[in-house]
Amino acid sequence: MSIKWFPGHMVSARKKAAETMENIDLVIEVLDARLPEASCNPMIKELRVHRQRPCLKILNKADLADPAITQAWLNFYNRQKDVKAVALSCKKPGDVAKVPGLCEALAPHRGTNLKPLRMMIMGIPNVGKSTLMNALLNRRVAAVGDEPAVTKNQQRLELNSRMSLVDTPGLMWPRIEHDSDGYMLAASHAIGRNAVIDEEVAAFLGDLLLARYPALLTARYGCAVEGLDGVGVIEAVAKKRGFRLKGGDPDLEKAALILLKDYRTGALGRISLESPETRAAMIKVHTPANAKGKEPEKEPESDLSSSTPQP
Question: DSSP readout, the chain?
Fold first, then answer.
């Protein structure tokens, strides 16, 4: 299944973001720490690089991600030009309090009463942009919801006399190049349910968990995982939880939703769906080395030891 989700309002949101980029100093890009590159909109990089704007990459929901893999991603991003990466939870005031200082360090020529630092919060839907905005301002100014694409319009607010913030709608891109990215985004609830089949997404997640975090499945659902595939995981969840349809067949849809919910809320444990190493391997498979006139995409470097579970 190829996943595509690009609601109509995102066309105008992208155009407005490009216009606003001209009048800001720094981009705060919010990513999902469990899938940083899959949740990184290539259009955002295109816009900020065109305007030569530095970027603070916030790996949000770090409390739900595998800490060793998160550190590898921080090392990867912090080697990039004009980029500073930090892992935190936008729901923790102490974490969010670090953000203004990090922004000032990236744009030291701004941040005075005469020249306020103008920041723009960007990212795909449902990664925590509005939660970050509310936490920075210490009041509710942006709608927050569990469904993607809650925010549909830009708003500009003053953080203090030296800093201003622009909150933007979540931006997807028209074509998700890699199917696995679409599944990871859907599993993490960055894509609307109308664009996916929950059982297929849960089966993808089940296969990934079997390969990398099988012990977490056993601990959560009390089932042996040897010999199972992704669909088998859903069936095992249905059996253990007693989810049955009329006639006695397992209710796979209900079990799939439980598996997805347990991953999204952290009930399964701290899980990362990709690492720099697995990202590099995926890109290598999908980038023909002999493509005419095109060099293979540079592979991310891994900072993980061989003992770490690898997405």
Answer: -------THHHHHHHHHHHHHTT-SEEEEEEETTSTTTT--HHHHHHHHHTT--EEEEEE-GGGS-HHHHHHHHHHHTTSTTEEEEE--TT-HHHHTTHHHHHHHH-TT--SSSS-EEEEEE-STTSSHHHHHHHHHTS--S---SSS----S-EEEEEETTEEEEE------S--S-HHHHHHHHHTT-S-GGGS-HHHHHHHHHHHHHHH-HHHHHHHH----TT--HHHHHHHHHHHHT-B-TTS-B-HHHHHHHHHHHHHHTTT-S--S--HHHHHHHHHHHS-TT-TT-PPPPPPPP---TTS---
